[in-house]
Amino acid sequence: MATIAVHELTRAYGPVLAVDRVSFTVGDGEIFALLGPNGAGKTTIVEILEGYRTRDSGVVEVLGCDPASGGSAYRARIGVVLQSAGFEEEFTVRELVRLQCALYPRRHDADELIDLVGLADKRTTRVKGLSGGQRRRLDLALGLAGAPELLFLDEPTTGFDPAARRHAWELVARLRGLGTTILLTTHYLEEAQHLADRVGVLRSGRLLTVGTPDELRAGSRLPTVISFSVPSARDLAGLPPLSAPPQIDGDHVRLVSHDPLPDTRRLTQWASRCGTDLPDFAVSPPTLEDAYLALTEEAADVR
Ligand SMILES: Nc1ncnc2c1ncn2[C@@H]1O[C@H](COP(=O)(O)OP(=O)(O)OP(=O)(O)O)[C@@H](O)[C@H]1O
After folding, report:
1. How far is 271 from 265, CA to CA, in rounded Å?
2. Sign of torsion, CA 116 120 126 129?
C-alpha cells in the first residue's frame, strides 16, 4: 500500500518551474530518499507533502488524505524534523519533549522518546547546554512526539561527526523497525545508500530516476576499478590479457573495467600461477555517489 502517491505534481514560483510533473510513490514502512543538487525542488515537494505549501497541479495523496486540505488532523499524523528548529534555550530536554508530546492526541511517552534518541543522560540538561549533535537528536525526539505514521527527515545528519552520524543511522533503522515510513532528503549519498530502500533523483524540478541504490548503481553502467600493487615492477611482466589496457605506474596497476568478474579471475589466477602476492588488491564498483553525479551531470548536458 502506498503511504505517499504523487502524480504529475507541478509547482512554479513566478517564472521558475520548481517542480515539473513529478510522479512517485512511497510504500508503507519504506524509507525513501529524495536526492538532488541545490535548487532541484526537494524542499518544495516535501513542503507540499507536509501540507505547508500549495501546488499548481497534479494529484497528491498522503496517508489517504490530500495534504492541501487535511488540516490539523492530517498534520497530527505526520512528523517533521527540520534542519534547525529554534529551541527555547532555558527549557530542559524533558520539559521540551513533554510539552511537544502534549500537543498530540496520539503520542509517545516523553521519557521513552528521550531514551530512543539517546538523550537519557541529558534529560535534565537545559537546551543551551547541548552540543550540535545532541540538539539534532532533540529535533528528532520532537518530530517523533506525535508517534507519526510518516516522518519527514530533512538532512538529518548535517554537521554530525562520523560517530554521531552512525548513531543517527542506527536510530533511523530502529524507527524503520517500528514500521514508520520515512521520507528523507539528504546531500550525503553514503547516507542514502545506507538508509534508503529507494531513492529518487531530482534535477531542475524533474525526477530523473527512481530505484533502489543498487539499481541506480547498476543502471549507471559505470566501470569498476580494479587496483593492486606487486612487490616489484618486474613481477608485472606477463600480465594476462584484460578487458582494457591497465594503467601501470611503477609497481601499481589500475584497471578501469566494464567486465570486472573475468578480469578479477584472470588476475588472481595469474598471481597464483606466478606466486606473486597482491597485498592491496581492491575491486571498487561504482558507488551511489558516482551514479548520482553521472546522472545529474548528464542531465545538465542535455539542457
Ligand atoms: N519561496 C520561493 N520563491 C521563489 N522561488 C523559490 C522559492 N522557494 C524555492 N524557490 C526556487 O525553486 C527552486 C527549487 O527550490 P527548492 O528549495 O525546492 O530546492 P531544494 O532541492 O530543496 O534545494 P536545496 O538542496 O538547496 O535545499 C529553486 O530554483 C529555488 O530558487
Report:
1. 10
2. negative
Looking at ligand 1, which atom is closest to the CA of residue 45? 18
Q: What is the mean pLDDT of the chain?
A: 91
**Each residue's pLDDT tens digit, 1-17:** 799 999 999 999 999 99
Q: Kindly state the average pLDDT of the residues 120-145.
A: 90
Prediction ipTM score: 0.98
39 ligand 1 Cβ < 6 A: yes
Neighbours of 218 (CB within 10 A): 14
Ligand 1 in contact with 42 (CB < 6 A)? yes
Give CA–CA dist 287/297, Å, rounded. 15
For residues 135 and 89, the answer to whether their CB atoms sit within 8 Å is: no
Q: How many angstroms is it from 284 CA to the middle of ligand 1?
A: 35
The closest alpha carbon to 134, from 150, 148, 118, belongs to: 118
Ligand 1 contact via 18 beta carbon (within 6 Å):
yes
Q: Find out whether 44 and 58 touch, Cβ atoms under 8 Å.
A: no
Q: How far is CA 122 from the centre of its chain?
A: 28
Grid cell locating 21? 510533473
Q: pLDDT of 173-190, one tens digit each? A: 888 888 899 999 999 999
Quickly tell me which residue has 601499481 as its cell. 252
Contact 18, 11 (CB under 8 A): yes
CB of 186 shorter than 6 A to ligand 1: no
40 CB near ligand 1 (under 6 Å): yes
Residue 233 has pLDDT above 80, yes or no: no
Collapsing DSSP to helix, strand or coil, 149 comes out as coil
> 167 φ, ψ to 5°?
-60, -45
Ligand 1 neighbour 211 (Cβ under 6 A): no
Task: Using most ligand atoms within 8 A of CB, pick from 43, 82, 202 the residue to mutate for ligand 1.
Answer: 43
